[in-house]
Design a protein that fits this description.
Layout: H1 3-13, H2 18-31, H3 47-59, E1 65-69, H4 77-94, E2 97-101, H5 105-111, E3 115-119, E4 122-127, H6 129-134, H7 139-145, E5 153-159, E6 162-167, E7 170-175
Parallel strand pairs: 1-2
Antiparallel strand pairs: 3-4, 5-6, 6-7
Helix pairs in contact: 1-2, 1-3
Length: about 180
């Protein structure tokens, strides 16, 4: 199928009129920056253009929620960055809720308003990218989401908003997490 036919397929299934299909596909081709590619076949497109066609095929159906499952995993690094930026821009412009599954922490941090970090099917933490990065609730989350250095420490005493801790052979008093 051509790019146009590929994008229009779901609209044909919904039995929309030819004029409605033509208008909706033209609009989505424009939105996706594919306006001059409607007559081409998939093998005549770049990897990024193919990804945009796949996304256009879903967007033309005007879904309330988009579900992504590792959508950029087959792309090279440069194209991943470009497509990540395009997806983020589309999410903002269309104000569409998206559930995005990825093992790529950079993608998750760049595209998300909220992140759910899972470990072996269990939720470890839910929060904004900033919360997840700055205040991981477990060693797994800290190691998974960022560049972490782990140091062994021993809490000697905790009183009010202060803790006495031994770290690297030094004893010090620090503010307890969540306190000023």
């Amino acid at each position: 199928m051509t790019v146009f036919d590929n994008i229009a397929y779901g609209l044909h299934i919904r039995k929309l009129s030819r004029s409605e299909i033509k208008e909706k596909v033209a609009n989505i081709l424009d939105l996706m920056g594919l306006q001059d590619l409607g007559a081409r076949r998939p093998n005549e497109l770049s990897g990024g253009q193919q990804q945009r066609v796949a996304l256009a095929r879903f967007l033309v159906m005007e879904p309330r929620v988009l579900l992504f499952d590792e959508p950029l995993s087959n792309l090279d690094a440069k194209l991943r960055v470009q497509m990540r930026s395009e997806i983020h821009g589309l999410q903002r412009r269309l104000s569409i809720t998206s559930v995005y599954v990825t093992h790529d922490q950079v993608e998750a941090m760049a595209l998300s308003d909220r992140i759910v970090v899972m470990n072996q099917g269990r939720i470890e933490q839910i929060g904004t990218p900033d919360e997840i990065y700055r205040r991981p609730v477990s060693r797994f989350v800290a190691d998974f989401i960022g560049r972490a250095n782990f140091l062994e420490a021993r809490a000697e005493a905790v009183m009010d908003d202060q803790a006495t801790v031994t770290l690297l052979g030094q004893t010090m008093t620090i503010s307890v997490a969540g306190k000023p």
